[in-house]
Amino acid sequence: MKTDLNNPILRALRGERVESVPIWFMRQAGRHLPEYMEIRATAHDFIDFCFSPDKAAEVTLQPVRRYDMDAAILFADILLIPIGLGRQVEFVKGVGPTLDPIDAAGIDALTVSGAADRVSQVYETVAKVRAELDPSKALIGFCGGPWTVATYMLEGKGTPNKEQAKRFAYEQPEAMAALMHALVESSADYLIAQAGAGADVLKIFESWAEGLSPDLFDRLVLRPTADIITKVRAAGITVPIMGFPRGAGLNAIRYAHETGITAIAAGTDVPLGDFRATIPDGMAVQGNLDPLALRTGGRPLLRAVDQVLRDGADGPHIFNLGHGVTPDVQIDDVHAVINRIRNFDYSELRG
Ligand code: CP3
User: Fold this and answer.
1) Binding residue per annotation — 190?
2) What pTM value is reported for the model?
3) What is the pLDDT of residues 20-45, one digit of tens each?
4) Which of 77, 155, 194 gets mutated to test ligand 1 (max ligand atoms within 8 A of its CB)?
């Protein structure tokens, strides 16, 4: 159904301090939900599942139904774009994403033109979800940050330090720039198509922004992200765009000021109150309950929730985790977090 432009997430993204803080969780659709597991079991392969609009739309809606979250996030993956670019991607059970590591010759051979068209099932999912979703709920589309996607393409898998990918950036700067260009073009087209199909908000997941020198951060995160946003805006897309430079430390300050993002999501390690003082005035902040506190439950969880609410209270805030829901989370603990937030009394804090 058509989005209500006064829904809580869109209000917060416009810089309003919403009375009942809007809530959604990264990876809210996933293995902690029995209804997800039931549909997941009908698809042999994770990529086939992402490319099945009926199934993907259904699991996108599940957490909104169960928890009354304020937003749905499109069920897809940041590693669909490498498929559009002509690379092989597999999700191996118990191992995670597995790709054929790319080199300079492979970068030359990427099929940049039309890459986003080759994953068009995703836009069907977006349209199906928006058609069913209540106007009071926002639909979030997304892509991976160019650097984060590049790490998987270069290393062939998730690794702790992304050392090979960083080495490649130093040793083969031209090939790295060409890879960034391919990812900027295809990711921007991917976001433009999602917004065209009905996404109300777009998010760029730069999950591996930690440990980059300021120079690499500039080349691999800041400029490519700014280029994506410039291209999306040039296409006439006006929806809010959220950035998530997870683990970026002080590099996140320039990210907030120089990429053109509307709002910023904070990882678990960010003190929200201090962080707010460094970013543009009135910019909404999203985050950042520790997913491990959610998994722990009980009193420690409620204390952690209160802390995030207090830290976020000085400006527009969207409640979320600092990273994704883990599969071992208890449904009752998610309900407890949501009840705590919905009943939180700000009057003392705000005087
Ligand atoms: O609920 C949601 O958040 C929406 C859907 C979504 C998925 N992946 C589904 C998924 C989103 C937004 C992503 C983004 C994504 N994918 C990121 C950035 C966010 C982050 O968590 O930092 C990254 C780094 C990836 C790459 C990726 N996809 C990895 C490393 C893995 C394996 C890890 C795991 O949990 O198994 C995936 C697989 C994946 N993507 C799953 C889901 C629900 C699990 C697959 C399954 O159902 O078995």
Assistant:
1) no
2) 0.97
3) 899 999 999 999 999 999 999 999 89
4) 77
